[in-house]
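Standup notes, structure subgroup. Blocker cleared on the uridine-diphosphate-N-acetylglucosamine input:
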Amino acid sequence: MDYLKIHSTQQLSGEISISGAKNASLPLIAMTILAKKPLTIGNLPDVVDIKTLLKLLTKLGAECEFSHKSVRVDTSSINETKATYDIVKTMRASILVLGPILARFGHCEVSLPGGCAIGQRPIDLHLKALEQMGAHIDIQAGYIQATTPNGLHGCEIIFDKITVTGTANIVMAAALAKGVTTITNAAREPEVVQLCEILAKSGVNIKGIGTAILEIEGTDGALLDIADFDVIPDRIEAGTYLCAGAITKNELTLTHVEPKHLGAVLSKLEEMGSSFTITDDTITIHPAQEIKPVKIVTQEYPAFPTDMQAQFLALATQAEGVSIIEEKLFENRFMHVSELQRMGADITLNGHTATVSGKTELSGTDVMATDLRASSALVLAALVANGETNIHRIYHLDRGYEALEEKLQNIGAKIERLKE
Ligand code: UD1
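Run returned:
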């Protein structure tokens, strides 16, 4: 197993090129199941989660050629409709194939994803919405078995909670359904917006893109003519590197980034004392020399993302004063706290709220990555911790950060990947 050895780094400088968004790529790859002919998706991040989904599509019979950040996918050869446990257990987002397979083939089996390090993460809302659209769903031996005896039809869906992959799944199912599906309380994340925009360009009439009410007029089974396209930049990767500039107090420039997707993150960094120079596709952070404490509540887009909570928690350990960080989306998303405490952070957890007292001197030690974003919080802490930090179980990091150590090495960080 690989681990990262990181030495405290005073000086970072230069540019970091932001990769394509993992969380946009996953639904977009699943969407190719709805395509009439092969297509190429560009600006894909080279990360494990993308390879996992392509492996799943390949197992279903699709042809996927991944080369240099793009993939050519031909789903016309799909001859299997079962997403088996061996793949789904490694990536919950595999559930994204349920909507499109069911819409195209009228039946689908997907292993239930099971538990997760950051919370229970049920998929009841995906299933309830598909049932409303006419699917029959049985849970048998750990598998969702879905059929559509009379096809999928449009209907009015009101999500009890805003769900990102749930919205994507239902939008994809609705794209091929008969009639109009209205989704109220839809997710407005940029990743969902890109999915809707590509579907709209491919002949599906979608109203309300980017709002909480989506209206999708299905094609009644007709496959879609989807042209080649590029995935949007990864706003969470970008936010993580902005935190690297802020925590080490170094000016850094991000390129190939979409500043419009980073509103809440930039605003919190500003409250903490940083300022920015922003162009259409670059952000330069001018970090605060004295970091101010902050209050953060994670919420759905456009509010502050839960996927940036761990990184800001690491940053708050270096703020002068008391920061309060409340996690509203996932009940167990504070696993990084105990590792940061082992490095010397002063953090008190009370239910869903972390109180971080700073500034504390952090010391390098051996720590364990517990989930994807928790891992990047440990990397940030290690950049300013005295001495050497070894971060174990970085397979979590490899799921979602493309070439993290190369990108950090290029700006001067002392970071290396070693084998246990
Ligand atoms: C997606 C992102 C993940 C991010 C999360 C929240 C991908 C691949 N993953 O995850 O990085 O942290 O959005 O922004 O895009 N819920 C239910 N029932 C459901 C579905 C969700 O109760 O059927 C709950 C969840 O437990 C959670 C909340 O709704 O509390 C939001 O979850 P959701 O938006 O579905 O997260 P994901 O789509 O899994």
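Discussed briefly. The chain is about 30% helix and 25% strand.
Next: hand off to the docking folks.
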